[in-house]
Amino acid sequence: MSDLEATLRTALARPLDRTDLEGLGEKYEGKVRDNYVKDGRRVLVTTDRISAFDRVLGTLPLKGQILNATATYWFDATKHLAPNHVLEVPDPNVIVGVECEPLPVELVMRSYVTGVTSTSLWTHYERGLRTFAGHRLPDGLKKNERLPEAILTPSTKAEKGGHDVTVSRDELLAMGQVSARDLDRAAELAAALFAFGQARCLERGLILVDTKYEMGKTRSGEIVVIDEIHTPDSSRYWFAESYAARFAAGQEPESFDKEHVRRWLAAQGFTGDGPIPTIPDDVKVEASRRYAEAYSTITGRAFEANLEEPVARIRRNLGLG
Length: 321
Hints:
The protein is an alpha+beta fold. It has a single domain (3-317), classed as ATP-grasp fold, B domain (D-amino Acid Aminotransferase, Chain A, domain 1). The protein is 33% helix and 26% strand. It contains nine helices and 14 strands. Strands 1-2-3-7-6 form a five-stranded antiparallel beta sheet. Strands 8, 11, 12, 13 and 14 form a five-stranded antiparallel beta sheet that branches. Strands 4-5 form a two-stranded antiparallel sheet. The chain starts with a helix and ends with a helix. The model has no long low-confidence stretch (mean pLDDT 94).
């Protein structure tokens, strides 16, 4: 057993599944992050919760720490391209940011026809549909094949437990929840970030297949990146070295995003509806190992875990006593 696996198995006993941090302001609980808003600041606590199929499925050991470290890396690496909300990172699970009004849309960038969910691009394409979020797709594509060019496929943002819906730019504007000016600025930032992320990842032997961005609007009207960026939760990563051979053989690419958990659930017959199967510890540890490997591969740094009881540590680092 590797040192990382031993650490992850130890952390199974102390999952950060939720927080209640009085004194930080109004709380909003997302699928993965607990948010606290007060005095123009937002405290984002990245928990160990994992979501897929638009459902919260349980926890993975140290997932929150790995995601927070990955997002912090990318926020710093891309701040010359797109402004973001980060003010400080006072704890392994916490980012403090400027409070923004979130845009009611997820900016989803895609470069490959892939996926296993009922709403994925591949599922859509396999059914014979050739238009996706307003984009015309060519005939003859195979699963996991690269698209002629990266496309933006916006998605509505469902409440926890609901289902996101992919829409075209025109459909989104017709809903009247976001202006054309804000949407087009967000789309411009998303395209720049995705191109940068793909280039940086390829240098590390990875393919950034697709990702989603959350954008917010500051009080001064500036569109900034919020929430997270290019983590294995919001992004699909494949290993570049083995992609071509596996694609030619009709095999699934090697990946280390939450697709590992999605595939295990799909093998149990779960595709998003009905009771959620209990995820075994071995699957949890392997998923977290892949998250940690993603972090190390992308950043060139070993993941350093903190095994303190997480809520007490967070309270101390935020000065809550």
